[in-house]
Amino acid sequence: MAEPIRIGAIGAGGNARAHMKRMQEMKGVELVAMVDPSEEAIKLAREGVPGAMKLPSFEDHEEMLEEVELDAVVISTPHTLHFEQIMDSLEAGLHVMTEKPMVCTTDHALQVIERYLEADVVMSVAYQRHTQGAFRYCRDRIASGDLGEVIFVNSLQSQAWYSSQVGRGTWRSKMKWSGGGQLNDSGSHLIDIVLWMTDLQPAEVFAYQDKMGSEVDILSAIDVKFDGGALCTFSIVGHQSWPGMFEETTIWLKNGQLAIRGNEVWEWVGDDKERQVVTGERLGKTWTPDENFIAAVRGEERVQSTPEDALKVIQLSEAAWASADSGEPEKVNR
Question: Hey, what domains does the chain have and what are their CATH numbers?
Answer without folding.
Answer: 5-128 (3.40.50.720), 129-286+306-331 (3.30.360.10)
